[in-house]
Specification:
It is a single chain. This protein has about 500 residues and is of the alpha/beta class. It has four domains: about 120 residues, no CATH class; about 70 residues, no CATH class; about 60 residues, no CATH class; about 220 residues, Uracil-DNA Glycosylase, subunit E (3-Layer(aba) Sandwich), CATH 3.40.470.10. It is built from 19 helices and 14 strands. Strand 10 and strand 11 form a beta hairpin. Helix 2 packs across helix 4 and helix 12 packs antiparallel against helix 15. The termini are far apart. Bound molecules: uracil. The site of uracil (URA) has 13 residues, from helix 14.
Amino acid sequence: MSQPERQPNTAFSVRLESEVDFAGWRDAARRLVLNDVPPHDIVWQTGAEDDLFADSAPLPDIPSGRTLNVPREFIDRAEAVACHTDPSRFAFLYRVLFRLAREPELIKIASDPDIIRLHEMEKAVRRDTHKMRAFVRFVEIGEDDDKRYVAWFEPDHFILERNAAFFVRRFTGMRWTILTPKGTADWDGEALTIGPPASKADAPAADATEELWRTYFTNIFNPARLKVKAMQAEMPKKYWKNLPEAALIPDMIKGADRAAKEMIERMPTMPAPHHKKIQARYWTGKDEPTATEVPAASLAEAREQAKGCRRCPLWRDATQTVFGEGPEDARIVFVGEQPGDQEDIAGHPFVGPAGKVFDGVLAEAGVDRRITYVTNAVKHFKFEPRGKRRIHSKPNAGEFQACRWWVEQELGFIKPDLAVALGATAAQSLIGKAIPVTKMRGEVMTREDGLRVFITIHPSFILRIRERADAEAERERFVADMRKVKELMAA
Ligand code: URA
């Protein structure tokens, strides 16, 4: 085929068939690059624009023997960037391609301004794609054979076509239409058609399906994980107006604190899949108590022995023994009640919701948890299964009596200056009789062996208070208690 002679500074005008005609761009760009046409000699237009260069030169053929090798990575990224709304995107992509033909390593130069821009544009398109997948909501219209689903969505970029295949895969069995100001995608159950832009007036009003979404959303809403800023970044307010469930968001945010507390109480999960495996590791093969009757020779040995503890039946359902943790020369020992759901799975004391409160309060009082020893009156999680959840159940006197075997050994090896009883179970375990915690709170009791025991509440008590102001006040009191503990440590 004869090559049209290219005159220097000839303005090539490339008209692409649509806003997202990447195939058209690719074909034209290949011809132009292989003819060494510099970027400034080309005008890129898309279907909707007026033809500014109707009489520009026809595109040159590829000179025989010339080939173009561009990294696959560039093609993938360019395909996404082609969906950006920046009117100069095709010209920009050509500039990068032109440079790539001369600088094969360009794509790897992360600091190059063109590569930075390529990356930013690609990111914007991918983010928009993700948003569309997350926030398209269908409204049901018609009945029986005429039933179909219609959604209205306002994307930032020309992502409809690129994203349509995802919706076909996801909703293959439904007949649906997605209307956007940048085009329409219609799936009739067999074929996908991309149509012209639509307006919001074309979209049907809310219906029962929206009510369904609202119910679903309220149910999956996790108040404990609510981060308003992150949520707004993820779901910018501009999308809220089109989301039926968004009407619930302000109320749910308001109620989140209270809801989080309620959820924490309800939250325990059934043992993790590794539960049986961990149990098996310490299973001695007998269903009989195998408690060691000889005290351990060291704290490390006690910890080892406690792994196989059968002194009470709680080991059977728990995942593992949760022994105390902290330095052996700690001057202070905190004693809680028993490991909770998360501690049982993690194998460490005070790492769940109560642990978070405990950590926060210690930090505020200036007590460094890392130099303290933290343990529990009972070393196995006691719970009631309820559906898929494990609900904390208070250990009885027999259970914490049995576990004193370990608590006293921990205290014996550490020899702290002060033990802190967090709540009634710990106080009873440490003192040997029931202690009215509300009355004795903030007091120091001295045991026969001389060990001083500071009495205070259990941090989970704060989590159970529903009124925010009351919970705050209780937390302040707990901080004040921990400040006293700090003074006692220094005394
Ligand atoms: N409550 C406790 O008493 N101990 C823990 O380790 C966790 C919660």
